[in-house]
Amino acid sequence: MVIQIQAQKESANWYFGETAALDFNSGTPVSLSGSVLFTHEGSATISDAQGNLLFYTDGVSIWDKRNREMPNGTGLFGHKSSTMSALIIPKPGTINRYYVFTIDEPGISNDDLDDGFINGVNYTEVDMTLNSGYGDVVSKNNPLITYDVNDATELEYKSTEKITAVTHDDEISIWVITQLGDTFYTFLIDEMGVNETPVTSKVPTEVPPRVTSDGINLSAIGYLKVSPNGKKIAIAHSSTALGSPRTGTKNSGKIFLYDFDNINGTVTNERLLKNGFYPYGLEFSPNSKLLYATVGNYGSDDVFIEGYLYQYDLFSDDIAGSEVLINKSNYYAGALQLAIDGRIYRAGYTGLSGLNTLSYIGKPNVLGTDNDYQHAKIKIDHGLVKLGLPPFVQSIFKYRFNYTYVCSGSGFETTFSILPDPSEEDPDFTMFWDFGDGTTSTTSTTHFYDVPGDYDIVMELTINNEVQSYKKTINIASPPTLDGAYELISCDAFDADANDGLTFFNLQNLSSANSIFTTDLVQVYYYETLAEANADTTHLNAINSSFYNTVKDQIVYAKVYANNSDCYQIVQVKLTTKDPIAIGSFTRNACAIQTLGIADFDLSSDFKSEIRTKLNFPDDVAISFYETRESAQNGTNPIASVYESSDTTIFIKAESSDACYDVGEVALTVNAFPIIDNRVYNVCPSEFPITIDSGIKGTLYDNGTYTYSWDSSVTVVDGQQSVNDQLEVYQAGDYFVTIYDEVLNCETTIQVSVIEYPSPDINMLVVEDYKLTVILNNPSTDFEFAVDYLNGFQSSNVFTNLEAGEHVLYARDIFRCNIVEQTFYVFGLPQFFTPNGDGINDTWNVLGIEPSKFTSPINVYIFDRYGKVLAVFNPLESNGWDGTRKGVELATDDYWYRFALPDGRKYSGHFTLKR
């Protein structure tokens, strides 16, 4: 079978533990500094195909290669104490999109540095084309269902802490695998993205959550790994017994082995490899024939005793019985992780503080104890090792080959190398190479390509009588065509001495006539010596593109790479200087924007022409502007043609093909216009027309030279006219006057609002139980009210304890422009009357009957206590009963009344006559 392998250098950088980091690009791990990661267990790292770090994560935050938090890269749903908190998957079919799978700690204790919830498995998408190539999170915390939604326990815990990935059989798509209870959940990732509907596989043994009284879910702890060839899956359940801490529950773990079908994603054929102790880390050998596990041994009180490293032969008839003890130590069981150098690295520590070393298995394909296990041999110069190591897509660790130098032509030799070294597994292995151009070899790993192009390289290895074939397409590029030496000319204008031949050179600014930045070149790196140019494969020692030469006519060396290739040539570049032409200083004024103290300065073609004219420069001299002198010297970050700024100085750069210019200056000055507030006129309707003004008269700027232009939001009526800063207006509305300062060449616009006071518009008067409520169609706090008396106005529209009878309501605006009135009636029946001729209560009558509502007669009957009718009268036509019968005054006593209104209401009762 021919296998198209992935880019192994995606795993070239590891970030883990407390600021620990390793670089595997050179073939041996090199300790790195600068990491800001602090995690006890899970982390993940990803690099590009060339081994350059892209970003890393603890499952909660994402940091880019500058060790800065990625935009939107916080609040991910992993956990710093989840075994496999994160796993980074390249999106198939792309080179700049990645999925960050996170897996939370599924325990009750999930609250430290976390959101306090059990979030299960989620994925986040990162786009490396954003944020200037440093990456940005474009979609975050997309949940995946990895539990039985009908099972209350699984719904609560959602997942274990286990996740792994391997390439699909098509060598393009990727399987992501996790587990909970008795079910494996396998998600396919392809060019379309993440298929959120998993392939599910039930297995015989169920391992439910086992949560201790201190909230730790012990059965969730432990690694899940798939073999590099995609055929086996191993899982470690650190503990499977339910109980409180310190009761011996930790030594109840299990390791299971399963078959994996990387065509359909199913998990089958369960085998128990270890029953007991506390298993944690797992890893397969590069050839997928051996399995390694770290296991902790705890006493009956759950106190750690010692740790073990075991090996299992997956091709044995009794895999569990093939167990070999590789190492016993006082190290806690930690992660195992295969690296691109073919070794398996082991994390762990003694005590609780972490260590600064890693152990490794040097020959992990070798069966038994001769596999070159080295304990605590890799020194970590920066940070501490804890329990975790970063996982990767497991299939990148299969047998593969690398190649060096990729130029065509007889002078360029391409060398192939096999990783890991197959002789460690079989000293008598054989190989067969097809170099893709019709040439084959069974002995040589070097080849010369005459013609550039893509070549399909096939490597066949026969290891222990088993043939394994691998295919990889490589690109052989044409070496860049360079014509002898080159010269870069810079103005000797960037330091104090304009004649010493020393200045700043922008090494990217080779003139177009001698440019080595042609379309078939992708990148150029510069060095001060030829030896440095040849030796630096990572370009870390290249000089900065802004370079200050140390001697006149200094020679530097350009390392020029062909497009999308490691093919390069080296050429000399002579750095020479030219005396500059002075530009001098200019000024530019602009009007302030409102009251902000800033202005928009016009730096467009007219101003550039003005500079050329003043300096007698030809039209082909390009003029540009910069915020700093250094930017002008380097030609970086030019200013736009409209530049918003306060008072400042900017810098001029002039360029032409045949001259050298000094850096000039432009003093930008903001001209401030008088600060005039918008104006408001409140007007009674009877006061129109009125004269409004701009408000500038009487200010500190009264003596300025101004012109005025009026505009209105309302239709201009006949007779409305403008006189200087004044305008005669006939109606309410918003008026706008633009004031132009002829001296400062500035203008500002003032809004003048004319507001007409409204009149109260009565909707209804509600009278009930001697209380009046005034209902307006236009309620406002600018109205006031009175009843019967014009000197008794109040802001409230409610009047209480009114006397029965006829009243007048008055309503007006608080500015007393308009007043409206309306008569209303308060219906009432007096309780007594005193007919003594003093003009007060001399008669008894029904009060507050509104005449306009009743046209039919109303008869009011008056009775004595014996029911004799004493009087009958109509209250709308009579002043009422005067206390007599047939001209005879009646005595003080209670009397009764009865009447009916035309609308059907009936009234009866009694009152008192007092003398």
TrEMBL record:
Pfam families: CHU_C, PKD_4
Domain PKD: 426-462
SUPFAM superfamilies associated with the record: C-terminal (heme d1) domain of cytochrome cd1-nitrite reductase (SSF51004), Calcium-dependent phosphotriesterase (SSF63829), PKD domain (SSF49299)
UniProt name for this protein: Gliding motility-associated-like protein
Species this protein is from: Formosa algae
